[in-house]
Amino acid sequence: MFAIGDAALSGSPPTAQVAAQQGKHVGRAIRDGIDSKFVYNHAGSLCSLGSSNGIAQLVPSGTFNVWDALGSPAVGKNQDERAVTGKPAIVLWRSLYWSKLLSSSSRISLGGDWIKAKMSGRDVVEPVLQRAATLRAPV
Ligand SMILES: Cc1cc2nc3c(=O)[nH]c(=O)nc-3n(C[C@H](O)[C@H](O)[C@H](O)COP(=O)(O)OP(=O)(O)OC[C@H]3O[C@@H](n4cnc5c(N)ncnc54)[C@H](O)[C@@H]3O)c2cc1C
Hints:
- This protein is mainly alpha-helical.
- It folds into 2 domains: 1-41; 43-118, no CATH class.
- The protein has helices at 16-32, 66-70, 87-99, 104-120, and strands at residues 44-48, 54-58, 84-85.
- A 3-stranded antiparallel beta sheet has the order 1-2-3, covered by helices on one side.
- The site of flavin-adenine dinucleotide has 8 residues, from α1.
């Protein structure tokens, strides 16, 4: 029996990234019949702050350094603490979020929503409450 994701006390944080990697690990373990130790590989953190601001911290993997490719100023001192903020971060956040959706129909639906929100603003519904006349009880 395997316990993965939020249901597991694995020492890794209870995040979607950990759960997804553990899912793949267990899938391979069952398929190949190999019982190996799970090693979490942190790819980075993304956070959106409104529609045009955010922060993206991506850990460079292998020989490809995403920071060199982006040519953006980084925040933080260490290599794995470097991050971009503002519009580039939102572009990264949205690209990753969109690419991780499981079906094409979800991607089309979300892409459409983002375009609609950009063109006509957010869908805000303001309920109008009307006070009905209060009947006074006869004295
Ligand atoms: C408000 C909120 C915000 C979060 N934001 C982030 C974030 O920004 N980034 C990030 O990485 N992580 C985030 N997380 C954490 C992330 O959602 C979880 O770590 C991740 O979803 C864990 O995946 P999982 O597959 O282990 O569990 P889940 O995604 O919870 O999946 C478990 C599934 O099992 C089903 N289930 C439960 N009991 C039964 C049963 N008896 N029979 C059949 N099905 C059952 C549930 O309905 C559910 O669909 C957030 C969590 C919350 C609550």
